[in-house]
Amino acid sequence: MTGSDLEELLTQRHKDITLFDFEGKKIPCIIMEERRFDDIMKAIAGKPISVETNLNILQDGLGHVFVKMVLHFSQGEVEENVLLYANESLEFFEALTETSMLALSSPHSEYGRSNVFMIQLPKPERTADALEIIKKGLKT
Questions:
Q1: Partner residues linked to 26 by β-bridges
Q2: Inter-residue contact 1 to 10 (CB < 8 Å)
Q3: Residues of the chain above pLDDT 90, percent
Q4: What does the alpha-carbon distance between residue 130 and residue 96 come to, in Å, rounded to a whole number?
Q5: Per DSSP, what are the bridge partners of residue 54?
Q6: Do 3 and 10 form a contact (C-beta atoms < 8 A)?
């Protein structure tokens, strides 16, 4: 990864993430633009859905680690791609591994209370493997 590649990825990264307390556990949450969140909720409302979640890890061997999260909803023809900079969000991935839960929210939601879409990740071992790769990449 060249310096210009790094700069491009840094400008593309999603910065609006948080952790909120839900029944004593830290839940990682991606805060989406209001309109995008509403569009997703309208597309899936009232439908039984599953969300395939893939974590694609990009690293340069110099300690910079990015994770491209691809969320593919089984209904509504919805796919969301979120690029996170793991150097700034290690706690997010630790919480993701610990809880196997991911929340999507709008900027005006009350995290953990209203207008939050929760995703249960079906394969917790995949997030544990991803966290291990992220940590190794950060130590390089």
A1: 21
A2: no
A3: 71
A4: 10
A5: 70
A6: no
| pLDDT the model gives residue 122 | 83
What the block records as the tokens of 1 is: 């990864």
**Amino acid identity for residue 68 in this structure:** K
In DSSP terms, 66 is beta-bridged to: 58, 85
pLDDT in tens, 48-104: 899 999 999 999 889 999 999 999 999 878 999 999 999 999 999 999 999 999 999
Residue appearing with tokens 């990009």:
58
Residues 63 and 138 sit within 8 Å (Cβ to Cβ): yes
Q: Would you mind telling me the total number of residues written for the chain in this entry?
A: 140
pTM reported for the whole predicted model: 0.89
**Cα atoms in the 13 Å half-sphere on the side-chain side of 57:** 23
